[in-house]
Amino acid sequence: MRNERKTFLSRGWGAACVLALLSACSGGLEPLSGEEALTHLDPGGSDSSVLTSLAPEPSYAHAVDSTSTAGVLEPERALGPPDGQAAMVLNLPGAVLVLDMGEGTEGTGDLNVSYRNATLEVLTWVEFLRADKSVITTGPLRLANLGLGTHVAVVPYSEKPVPYRYVRMTGVLALYWVDAVRNMGSGGLTCGDGQLNEGETCDDANRTSGDGCSRGCQQEAGFRCEGTPSVCTDIDECAEGLGNCAAGFSCINKPGSFFCWEGVCRPPHSVCNNQCFNLSTDKENCGRCGNRCGWRDVCARGVCKTIGKLAFTLSWSRPGNGDLIVRAPGGIHYSAQNPGPEGEELFVFDDQDGKGPEVVYWAPGVEPDLGDYNICFEAKSFDPAPSHDHPVSASATYLGPWNGTTHLGSTTLTSHSRGGMECGRPTIGFVGRMTYWGRFAPESSGP
Predict the structure, then answer these.
(1) Whose CA is closest to 278, among 314, 242, 253, 309?
(2) Residue 262 within any structural domain of the chain
(3) pLDDT digit string, tens, across residues 308-363
(4) Do 235 and 241 meet the contact criterion of CB atoms below 8 Å apart?
(5) Is there a single domain that holds both residue 422 and residue 305?
(6) Which UniProt keywords apply (predicted)?
(7) 137 with 194, same domain?
(8) What secondary structure does DSSP assign to 221-268, as a single string?
(9) Which domain covers residue 438, as residue numbers?
């Protein structure tokens, strides 16, 4: 008879056919006597069965959640200790049984599933859910066709001691009966109560990761936690000599860790997203990390400022002292050494140990001279010095009133520049040329 039933179910009987079988199977669903054993099934799939008894602790499923579907018949029979009365999870797509472990008795350990009369070998998955129904993790549920009686399969829970509020079981090709669901790690919710309980290495009175004490009340790498409730502070690996950076690299601390930066990241530079930026001139991190200037702005002394008719920027490939040189029509050279009168042709911000950008811009209301503007890069001081083995590349842009930000050109130097150079083609370090025609859009030409 069992082999015949296997054949019928494997052909995908629907719910109506399953209901017709209930009376024939009812004998297998009667409660067992107290002398009859419960079979414990090892999740590893071993053929050997171990006899055990279920302790009468109140750690069974507390209620059926409303997200359970009509593909589960009499789901309330899966509540409480095993009694021979079981919920039937049909072999239908979308059949879902969701059980509430109870507020205050959330699960923290493996799950014991008491089941009866599996008609086929069943492999499905149990989802462990938080109180907001988000998934913490999943575990395999293996049900063996062991004949009549109540059997127990263990679903391993890998996120101990993070508590789960709900468990969700889904339908598969074969139907199966769930008699009881028991959480083996209950005992009340302890992680997040501010007390250091067994199995916890910290408890900062919350269940949020990333602050030094994880959602499972375990001290996170790179932090030191003390007291009750735990107060977690970042370990400064650089200050404590724990950062192992190669020669020529600086140790930069960050929450929970550190990284090695080529060169020195010091004010006005700052570390943003594991990179070193000049907060005085970087328009993506102007004045502080993440403060982005508008497209018509430049970052000048850490403040986003709207430009007038024209602006130039220059960045280079590795930390060092590089200079932006702008040769205006008429032969005037604007640079860090000659920034022009403040309030008119304004600002060349000097970056002596970073990667730029340096900026020259004309203030609103100031009309730049008409004609050709040459842009050059001067490599003043780099370690190691620019060479064929250690070149330094630079890239320039201009921002005009019509075109937005436009790439002007790039250059690569293999030696330090000579001071007082004339910026123009074919000077070493020449990046590009732009012609400004007043009310018309600027034109650019490469090297």
Answers:
(1) 314
(2) no
(3) 788 888 989 888 888 889 999 988 888 877 766 554 445 555 666 678 788 888 87
(4) no
(5) yes
(6) Disulfide bond, Repeat, Signal
(7) no
(8) TTEEEETTTTEEEE--TTTTT---PPTTEEEEEETTEEEEEES---TT
(9) 269-445
